[in-house]
Amino acid sequence: MTWSRKNLEDVETIAPTTSVYLTPERQDIRRTARTFAMEEVLPLADELDPQRGEIPDALLRRLAELGYFGIMIDREHGGLGLGVFEYCLICEELARGWMSVASIIARGNGTGCASPDADRRSELLRRSAAGGWIGGIAFSEPEAGSDLANVECRAERSGGSWVITGTKRWVGHAQRADFLHLLARTREPHEGEGRSDGLELFLVEKPRGSFPDGVSGTPIDKIGYYGLTTWELRFDGLRLPADALQDTGQAEGQGFKDSLRWLGPARVQTAARAVGLARGAVEDAVAYCRQRVQFGHPIGDQQVIRHALADMSAQVEAARQLWMHAAYLVDSGESADVETSQAKLFASEMAEQVTSQALQIFGGNGYTTEYSVERYWRDARLTKIFEGTSEIQRKIVSDALIPEA
Question: CB–CB of 167/142 below 8 Å?
Fold first, then answer.
């Protein structure tokens, strides 16, 4: 069973209408995103997620029409010219409907636009903002996940070209993408350098719906996060032009550092997505508690249920305030490594707990695909893993508290 807008219109009480961060302009942005998520995204999620279906092209076009692929791209290049805060504000709403839709816009918003040629860079930014330049992120490998400096995929010079050999794992949207954003090793670290030295970022252009010669892929059979097919890719002599090497603004062999530049915003976005998932579970649980009758009364009359909902809503709001504060710091240009990690850690752990409690409130019905709560539960579990596991976030925060010797 799915919930219509009418079912939920009087239970959206854990998404505050006022906040020190929420200017009237931001409230308008959120209102538009919420209406879109509830009326267009959620019905598709309820239909397609049980089928393990992908985000339809028509919905990608709607995201482009709303400007969501260009939230953080300047207006000069057709974007909305907004910041990380607005980006995350929209992502919370989209994740309330379907987390994969909140994720797909991260594959626009200027990703894969760092061409060394200024005109080409401008062209790609415009395409990105318009939803015509959507990528797949090919960073992780079978032996390089949390330890990304362990990347072994090789990029070797061959005349005026680069030749790519190796394996990448966890590449979402790879086949349907317009490009792959590839992290590969061009050389071994020099004496005195770290393990990450010698890594560079490459742009692999490709047609939507297929892989170029020299690339093959196998879908990974996941337990959730449907809507975006995730791939393991094999590079067997893929040949790239010399200008496929991205202009990261770093010295030669320092592409890894540029990849880390995106981790702060990505972690705040994951926190916002986790809040959206948890919020969906709470709102669905409140609606269910009003309709489900046991022992002659709606189960929402039971104090144990009411107190559980109170705790859940408080946890959602606490996580929201953490991501909002972290996003504010990132947009202000301040150092926010600890705050982004705290937000990601707390929100993802919260989302797993809250969605699990919501499923418990549904009882046996929660353990079916007839209700959306099981989707929120499955997807929330992933937020503790991607963009840096909870264990990695704890290391970052604890190292700031007690620096390593």
Answer: yes
pLDDT in tens, 251-302: 676 777 777 778 899 999 999 999 999 999 999 999 999 999 999 999 999 9
Q: Which of 92, 200, 232, 387 is catalytic?
A: 387
pTM attached to this predicted model: 0.93
Is 191 among the residues known to form the active site? no
- Amino acid at residue number 66: L
In CATH, the architecture of 135-258 is: Beta Barrel (2.40)
Q: Residue 367 — φ and ψ, nearest 5°?
A: -95, 30
The amino acid that residue 334 corresponds to is E
Per-chain mean pLDDT for the chain: 93
Give just the sign of the alpha carbon dihedral 61, 82, 261, 397: negative
Residue span(s) of the chain under CATH 1.10.540.10 come to 5-129
pLDDT of residue 143: 92
Under CATH, which number does the domain 260-401 receive? 1.20.140.10
Q: Which CATH class is domain 5-129?
A: mainly alpha
